[in-house]
Amino acid sequence: MSDVQNNIVVVSGLSGAGKSVALQSLEDIGYYCIDNMPLTLLPEFARQLEDAAQNKRAAVSIDSRNMDFLRVLHDNIKCEEFIEDFSELIFLESTPDILLRRYSETRRKHPLSDQVTNLMQSIDKEIALLAPLRKAADHIINTSTLTPHELREKIRQIVGRSKQGVMLSIESFGFKHGPPRHADFVFDVRCLPNPYWDEAIRHLSGLDEQVVKFLEKEPDVHKMCNEIAGFLESWLPAFDADNRSYLTLAIGCTGGHHRSVYTANRLAEHFRKIMPNVQVQHRDL
């Protein structure tokens, strides 16, 4: 292909064995993914990837839709020249009976089937066509008994987990408008002292200095924030290990203007010191 050294992972394998799931899992941990890129474009893509950003990672899928190119790979020398330019080659396969069942359930057309080639013949033809890539693969995964979740975990184990980790989204809201439906955790801070009853600061929000000072002099406010932070610190590694990309924390008070806003900001400030991806938003301001 070229003498360009890059961080391109090749995902190949039999149709119906889980290549789409594998690419999605790579995309979730920061890879730039391209499905079925024309193989003639790969050398230029590798050069642009190297020029664009240092350590930029990408993944491409190669399957039987690139039939003409794959026929060339049956020349062992050309196959070795092609494979050596990539950091990893992952090959996915399943037993023919599982592939038959999956195609029967999805009712999708096999890429090699036509008016004279039935599904079983297409599977056999594809196995032969992809044999050079299977032989050269760094990792062969049989997905016959794997769930999509288990396959994602295997892919992440092979290429390494994202250094970015889970994205923590913290959102304040008012219970009188209803809690966010997408929240993973909802914490109720209506038990804390309410700045609303101080007419001098009622019109302000938890973003304003006067409200911040009002709340920070209250011991229960500090206790609430510290205990929520401690709970999350204990469980964030488990969510990261479970391949969660996002975790949404909702903090609610009555109107979503004072206590929840302050608490959300304080938690965001705390977690930005220990993890890279923290977002905060105030729904009802």
Within CATH, the superfamily of the largest domain carries the name P-loop containing nucleotide triphosphate hydrolases
**What would you say the CATH architecture of the largest domain is?**
3-Layer(aba) Sandwich
The structural class is alpha/beta
Unreliable residue stretches: 1-5
Spell the H/E element sequence: EHEHEHHEHHHEHEEHHEHE
**Number of distinct beta strands:** 9
Instruction: Note the gap between the termini.
Output: 55 Å
CATH class of the largest domain: Alpha Beta
CATH-derived topology of the largest domain = Rossmann fold
Inertia-based shape: elongated
Which quaternary structure do these chains form? single chain
Summarize the main sheet.
Answer: 5 strands, parallel
Q: What's the total helix number? A: 11
| Count of distinct structural domains | 2
Main sheet: strand order: 2-3-1-4-5
- Gyration radius, to the nearest Å? 26 Å
How much helical structure, as a percent, in the residues? 40-55%
Mean pLDDT: 84
Question: Which terms summarize this structure?
Answer:
Rossmann fold; four-stranded parallel β-sheet; alpha/beta; 285 residues; disordered N terminus
